[in-house]
Amino acid sequence: MQCRPRSSTKRASQKNPHCELPPEPDARRKPAYPPGLPLPRARFAAPFLFFALGLSFCQRATPPDRARLSDIFRFSNAIDPVVFDVEAEAARVYENGGVRTLSDSGQCRECHEVVYDNWQASRHRVAFTNPLYQESHAREPSRWCVNCHAPFVAPLAENQATPGPNEREHIQTDDGVSCLVCHVREGQILSSREPEVREDHPAHDYVVLEEMQSASFCAECHQFNFLSAETAEPHTELALVYADQPMQNTAMEWWQSSFRGELTCQSCHLRPDSAESHRFPGGHDHELLSQSIHVGVRRLQESGRALLTVYTFGVGHRFPTGDLFRTLVVRLLTPGGQTVAEVRLRHEFEPVPSDRRSPGDPAKVRVSDSTVPAPQGGDYAATRSFVIDLPGEPLHELRYELYMAYLEPVNYVLTTLPLSETRPLFESGVIAIEE
């Protein structure tokens, strides 16, 4: 069966080495668990088990055809929204000798209850409606952001004047990144593999697209550069143009890691063939964060100092990754509650004055990176270490607290959202100071 994509709005395309991944390799050796980590065995058993399960979920994909992603899905790496005619493109379902259409993601639950319920509870479902995004969008209403957070716009009516780029109204915003965004075009279901045929379920037209198993499929919204400063202005009518500096580099980080060729984005975040399929856990999932991020402290020979090491287990990219200001905050305290150190792992950016920018340059540049790198050389874990000062009193253990911060620092003064939303605590406990 052939998928015949509709024509879409004309796209502005740029050669962008950070937004297009190289072909995925056929094989690499499995990431190996590094011996001798100074953490209690029980603290890393759960993530290691999940990693092993993830290997069984891995779907080997052929190198993605970027043009097919554009033509079939109408993806443009967020340069344009996806023109989607809900009435004409609703999936056709055949049952009891008749035909009906599915034009809403909620109707998918009739046959895909587990998958739908998992998606319903996911961050994809609230990509547009979650309070963090809504507050950020109100402060900086960029149409570019909406192209990923609520991708669909309705087609223009016959004889309707072509609106400006800021005048296209997005539809189905309450569903965010929905079933239809990834799986429905031209009245057909798009699937990464041949579906199981069951006589007790209705049938629908479908197309098998192996591109959906690739990291490049996810990279359409999770790998992109800064816009040029001129086209990044919220109300500009200029066509969007990417600059040459990555803003979200998650897919490229994976491509350069030990996990490339063994685990894809889908292995860890889609979780196919499991009871958690389409749950999409990530940087907002406290359970996954708690399983994946650990800390250790070792006293240095020089008096009064120690080495704080942050470990990631089974994280196939840098951490934190994704959103521009996402930060891992590590707090160490004495048993009595006195703060010993607070370390922030993040990318740091600084604005570039307009008189120092060339046309096409971004408005910000990355000036430092204190994140944990992606695993390399076949490893399953990665580390980042920091030297800290210890208090004068003799200590053999410390309390620790791990937070995820999602806002630019200055916005913590401006936000009306609670800290439980903007800087949640996801792990705490006591660790021994190693000698």
Helices, strands, pairings?
Blueprint lengths: L40 H17 L8 H8 L8 E2 L2 H4 L1 E5 L2 E5 L10 H8 L10 H9 L3 H7 L2 E2 L25 H5 E2 L2 E4 L11 E2 L1 E3 L6 H8 E5 L14 E8 H6 L9 H5 L16 H7 E7 L5 E9 L13 E7 L5 E7 L1 E5 L12 E6 L11 E9 L7 E9 L5 H4 L4 H4 L2 E10 L1
Parallel strand pairs: 1-4, 6-8, 11-19
Antiparallel strand pairs: 2-3, 2-7, 5-6, 9-10, 11-12, 12-17, 13-14, 13-18, 15-16, 18-19
List keywords for this structure.
single chain; alpha+beta; seven-stranded mixed β-sheet; 19 strands; disordered N terminus
Give the strand order, joined by hyphens, for the main sheet: 14-13-18-19-11-12-17
Total helical elements: 13
Helix content: 10-25%
| Spans where pLDDT lies below 50 across 5 or more residues | 1-18, 26-64
Shape: globular
The tally of beta strands, per DSSP, is 19
Radius of gyration: 23 Å
> Strand-residue fraction?
15-25%
Number of discrete domains = 2
Quote the average pLDDT.
85
Instruction: Characterize the main sheet.
Output: 7 strands, mixed
What gap, in angstroms, lies between the N and C termini? 65 Å
What class would the helix/strand composition place it in? Answer: alpha+beta
Description:
By secondary structure, this protein is of the alpha+beta class. It folds into two domains: 63-213, no CATH class; 221-435, no CATH class. Helix content is 21%, strand content 25%. It is built from 13 helices and 19 strands. The protein has helices at residues 41-57, 66-73, 86-89, 113-120, 131-139, 143-149, 179-183, 215-222, 250-255, 265-269, 286-292, 411-414, 419-422; strands spanning 82-83, 91-95, 98-102, 152-153, 184-185, 188-191, 203-204, 206-208, 223-227, 242-249, 293-299, 305-313, 327-333, 339-345, 347-351, 364-369, 381-389, 397-405, 425-434. The strands form six sheets. A seven-stranded mixed β-sheet has the order 14-13-18-19-11-12-17. A three-stranded antiparallel β-sheet has the order 3-2-7, with no helix packed on it. The chain has a three-stranded mixed β-sheet with strand order 5-6-8. The longest helix has 17 residues, at 41-57. The N and C termini lie far apart (65 Å).
